[in-house]
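During the no-cost extension, the postdoctoral fellow (Dr. R.K.) reprocessed legacy sequence entries with the updated structure-token encoder. One reprocessed record is reproduced below for audit purposes.
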Amino acid sequence: MIRLFLISGGIFAFAGVLARSLSAHALLTQLNASGKLDNFNLAADYLLVHALALVAIALLGRLAPHPTFFWSGWAFLAGSILFQGTVLIKCFAPMGALGVLTPLGGLFLMLGWLLLAWGGLAARF
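Re-encoded structure tokens follow.
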């Protein structure tokens, strides 16, 4: 799991930097015209934040292995795919009924932060 969280963190960080770069250059006109620039940038910023969270979870998993940290990592991973992924997709295509995945992803992200805090209380350093 530590390796998965570290690799996912690296991939999400790359995707966040790439998305921010695209929104500032190649996609700027299109995103401005559709009114989706803020949504696209929000998803890119959340990718970057949760990439760092996944890297931290990987390090915590090595330093003070506690199941709650690993559950937090899984919540961040699922939440990032669902929330940031669907927000990015919605910037270019309608999602219809699948749009419900966005708030579900947001719930997973919030759960990840709560689990991280819980793990900080429960783990022995």
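The chain has a mean pLDDT of 96. The first helix runs from residue 2 to 24. The remaining legacy entries will be reprocessed before the final report is submitted.
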